[in-house]
UniProtKB/TrEMBL annotation:
One of its GO terms (biological process) is response to amino acid. This is AsnC family transcriptional regulator. It holds the Pfam family HTH_24. The keyword Transcription applies. It comes from Novosphingobium lindaniclasticum LE124. Residues 3-64 form the HTH asnC-type domain. Coiled coil: none annotated.
Length: 153
């Protein structure tokens, strides 16, 4: 899909504040509200904008710790992959999981209340998923950069 300058300005405004009123987006794009509404609808229909969600502070919700867990499966058979990926989808403390290249098969982003909770998540659930061979954890000390906005070059 080709995005023109107006589409990019609309997306930039929505990335800044997804609850921004259409009239305010229109002001920023030098368009009137009606074409902005149509463009937003088209961006949604075309799957460029896939949803709107609040950005939450995990600490305010009791999650003081974040970790990245690298996981290897013992065999890359469909049964292991399906079982592992379903267990990850079902785990509410896994906030992201990606299949990756390199020495490990998956990188899993976890939130936890504290180190004991992380230990429970890792030792009582992740390690026990049938087909999991290796698990390596790294605890996040500080977020240097964290953004959801994508570059619009």
């Amino acid at each position: 899909m080709q995005l023109d300058l107006f589409d990019r300005k609309i997306i930039a405004a929505l990335q800044e504040d997804a609850r921004m009123p259409v009239a305010q987006v229109a002001e920023r794009t030098a368009l009137s509200a009606t074409p902005v509404s149509r463009r937003i609808k088209r961006l949604e229909d075309d799957g460029v904008v896939i949803g709107y969600a609040p950005v939450l502070d995990p600490r305010k919700l009791g999650f003081e710790l974040e970790a990245y867990v690298l996981i290897n499966l013992n065999a890359h058979i469909d049964e292991n992959i399906t079982r592992f990926e379903q267990a990850i989808r079902d785990n509410p403390y896994v906030i992201a999981c990606h299949a990756v290249t390199g020495d490990m098969d998956y990188i899993v982003h976890i939130i936890a209340r504290d180190v004991e909770h992380l230990s429970q998540i890792t030792l009582k659930t992740l390690v026990r998923i049938p087909g999991v061979r290796d698990v390596k954890s790294s605890i996040v000390l500080e977020a240097i950069k964290e953004q959801r906005a994508l570059p619009l070059e």
